[in-house]
Amino acid sequence: MELVWPAKAYLPSYVSALNRGWARDETRPESGAEERAAIKADPDRFLASLVDRKARGGRILMPDGSKVRRLPGYKCWMWDGEFCGSIDLRWQPGTDALPLYCLGHIGYNVVPWKQRKGYATRALGSMLKLAAGEGLGRVEITTSPGNLASQKVIEANGGVLIETFITLPSQGSLTKLRYRIDL
Asked: Of all helices (H) and strands (E), which one includes residue 11?
């Protein structure tokens, strides 16, 4: 498994994952249908939207329907001959800190039929190198207390649990674990 930049050559496999019910945003299952529509309307624009180092894209829709400022960032795709999942990095220029509405620097999601193969662990390790290349000295990653697989992925990459917290109401007032990884 390797990380690849989203590109037309990989798009049919990405769409296939969407058609099988996978959605990059697990909090919004309808996001899969939204992405299929965006790809159908303009595949080049869709692909370009996934790499936005200057935060030129539109505002980000929160679970409660509110919208917040987009941060610079990008998504990479996990690839083993077919699409395996997505991992993304976001940051604020000039600081390791994130605004309160952003739960972490890195998020990842492996398609169910490729889970338990170590892909998330390897993808996170690769993304940490990219994060260091963006000038970050540390990253924070959050997960749910019941997501033991994600906790293992983070810990395998040097993550240290720093707190249990409740997300903002705009994020659903959920209990989360926050990990820090020094780069």
From this structure: helix 11-19
Location of structure tokens 């952003």:
102
Taking the domains of the chain in order of start, what are their residue ranges? 2-137
Give the model's pLDDT for residue 64.
80
Q: Helices 148-156 and 119-133 sit at what angle, rounded to 10 degrees?
A: 50
Nearest-CA neighbor of 114 among 87, 138, 141? 87
The identity of residue 116, as a single letter, is R
Q: Is 14 exposed, middle or buried (0-12, 13-18, 19+ CB in 10 A)?
A: buried
Q: Does domain 2-137 have CATH number 3.40.630?
A: yes
| Cβ partners under 8 Å of residue 49, min gap 6 | 38, 57
Q: Determine phi and psi for 130, rounding to 5 degrees.
A: -65, -40
- CB neighbour class for 12 (10 Å; exposed up to 12, middle 13-18, buried from 19): exposed
Q: Give per-10-residue mean pLDDT for the chain (183 aa).
A: 98 96 80 92 96 91 84 98 97 94 95 97 98 97 97 98 94 94 98
